[in-house]
Design goal:
Structural class: mainly alpha
Helix content: 55-70%
Strand content: under 5%
Shape: elongated
Number of helices: 7
Oligomer: single chain
Radius of gyration: 27 Å
Length: 130
C-alpha cells in the first residue's frame, strides 16, 4: 500500500466494512435501515421514500429559508450553473409566502385611497352591477 492509498483511507470520515469509501448504495442501505426503524416508532412522520438526495434537498431548502444567498447554496451543493440551484427557489412555497407577507406589510393602509369617499367612482362602480 503506497502513501496515497494510506492517506485516502485515513481521510475517510465514514467507511464500509472493509474500511473503504462508502458507495451510494452503501449509504442508501444505511439510511433505509434507520428509516425502517423510525417508521416502526412513528409511521406518520416518515415520508414514503427517503434517499441520500432527500438530505441534500432538505439542507438546500433550509439554507434557502434561512435567507442564505442562492450563490452560496450553489457553491455548497457544487452546482456549476445557478439555474440548477434556482430549482430550489422555485419550489420553496414558504419563502414565497414570506415575501408576499413582507410586501403586504410594507404597504400602509393610510397610503391607500378609500374608494368609497370618491362619490363619482362609487356611483360608477355600483352602476356596473345593474
Amino acid at each position: 500500500m503506497d502513501m496515497e492509498q494510506i492517506h485516502k483511507k485515513s481521510s475517510l470520515l465514514f467507511t464500509n466494512r472493509m474500511h473503504g469509501k462508502l458507495t451510494t448504495a452503501g449509504i442508501a442501505y444505511i439510511i433505509n435501515k434507520y428509516v425502517e426503524k423510525a417508521r416502526i416508532q412513528n409511521p406518520s412522520v416518515i415520508p414514503e421514500t427517503v434517499s441520500p438526495h432527500s438530505f441534500r434537498h432538505s439542507k438546500a431548502m433550509h439554507l434557502l429559508q434561512s435567507d442564505v444567498n442562492l450563490i452560496y447554496i450553489r457553491d455548497f451543493l457544487g452546482h456549476s450553473d445557478i439555474k440548477t440551484t434556482e430549482v430550489y427557489a422555485r419550489a420553496d412555497a414558504e419563502t414565497k409566502r414570506k415575501a408576499l407577507m413582507n410586501a403586504h406589510n410594507s404597504i400602509s393602509s393610510e397610503e391607500l385611497p378609500v374608494w368609497k369617499q370618491d362619490d363619482s367612482l362609487f356611483k360608477w362602480l355600483t352602476s356596473l352591477g345593474k
